[in-house]
Description:
The structure holds two protein chains of two kinds. In chain A, 87% of the residues lie in helices and 0% in strands. Chain A is built from nine helices and no strands. Chain B has two domains: 9-84 and 158-267, Rossmann fold; 94-156, no CATH class. Chain B has eight helices and ten strands. Chain B has helices spanning 49-56, 78-82, 100-110, 118-124, 141-155, 171-186, 198-201, 259-267, and strands at residues 9-20, 23-34, 38-42, 62-69, 85-88, 159-163, 190-194, 207-212, 215-221, 236-237. The A-B interface holds A 4, 7, 11, 14-15, 18-19, 74, 77-80, 82-91, 221 and B 57, 59, 61, 78-80, 82-83, 85, 87, 89-98, 102, 106-107, 109-112, 135-136, 144.
Amino acid sequence: MWRDTLLMVxxxxxxxxxxxxxxxxxxxxxxxALVLFAFAxxxxxxxxxxxxxxxxxxxxxFSTVLAIQRSxxxxxxxGARDGLRLSGLDPAGVFLGKTAAVAVQLVILEAILxxxxxxxxxxxMNSVWLAVVAxxxxxxxxxxxxxxxxxxxxxxxxxxxxxxxxLLPVVAPVLLAGTRIWQAALAGGIPSQGTPWVRxxxxxxxxxxxxxxxxxGPIQESS
Amino acid sequence: MAPAVxxxxxxxxxxxxxxxxxxxxxxxxxxxxxxxxxxxxxGPNGAGKTSLLRLCAGLVTPASGRVSVLGLDPVxxxxxxxxxxxxxxxxxxxxxxxxxxxNVKFAVRAAGGSIxxxxxxxxxxxxxxxxxxxxxxxxxxxxxxxxxxxxxVARSPELWLLDEPHAGLDAEARVLLGQLVTEASTGxxxxxxxxxxxxxxxxxxxxxxxxxxxxxxGERTLRDPAGEPMPTGDPxxxxxxMPTGDPxxxxxxxxxxxxxxxxxxxxx
Lengths: 223, 268
């Protein structure tokens, strides 16, 4: 399974490095979302700084949908999805590999959006490590849930519109926990403030990783 | 770990029915293919040739009947089976953003094959020099087909499933394809070719079977036991030459227990 995981990560990241969709489209989309939020909140920086954690995670969630759609569409051309099924790769390895590749892209995106939040909203990061923990734990959950729901919608003609409809409600706990942890991080929070929410993210990660490993194969076969 | 069941039969299908929703893809196929045999599957458009190959590759789940591929159940031992089967489909299964070399390497490694065979396989298919570093998006349909064939050659599977393999290939590649099939067969691999171009495949095949409306409707022996080509003749109805001696499937009647299948076959 791990060999197949590495093979898939390598393949997806290589494709991403060539096409640069994450850097040229997904990341700019996230930044534009942050700018639009700033426009909506007006020139006063105080409400912006207060809302920064939530807006950051909303931008991450929207960008995640794009990243997942890209991950799915890579397998939609020239019968690649059938090719993947025929390859004999362990479905669990395929799931973990695609999850890891999306997670790598999201971490880079979050770094860009984190800088954007500081620059655009005037937010001051008092506890960087807490924010990083939230990003890492949140990213794993987003990538795992996204890959799973991406596979569910993969074989459907309406996948572009169905995926956000399926995914966004499911990842609401990541938005909630991530926002709370970032609020603590911006306020120079102590570990105890973020711990329950980090636990929630870890549980979310574990559930979706386990679920994906078990059900990705049947989903892949039925799509 | 899937049990390796030694079997003289590479393919064994008995009354295999496959559905896509309620639409029947295969309506009770009986087919046995011996290990090392090369079989041509012929039939009109929509007859079920591609579905038959997809069933053998484990891409289609049988709704009923018995299916054994290389001694394995294609549903229960899907992953193990797919590593031993090579399927040249209508699509080439290439990633446009990867180069030819990367596509072949990924496919071969995914199937657990040795990457040492890749250079020779690519050379054989005329994929050399700058072409190897060209992204798949820039390839013509024929070149994509060659890449897919290179994957097959490098993987060297036990069962080759070729769906309209000559489509998109130029005259030189068609000759090469014939050589590759002959070599695979000589090497002990079983080859099943679905094709409309019987004149190209018959010289390679030991037997031809005809599928119509999702059922086997005829069979011809193309080589005698000594391996010499047989004189061409009229197709023999299925059942008379079937290795199992099973009778030809009777037409569905009103009393048939699969009314959905009956309805759709009439449409087909």
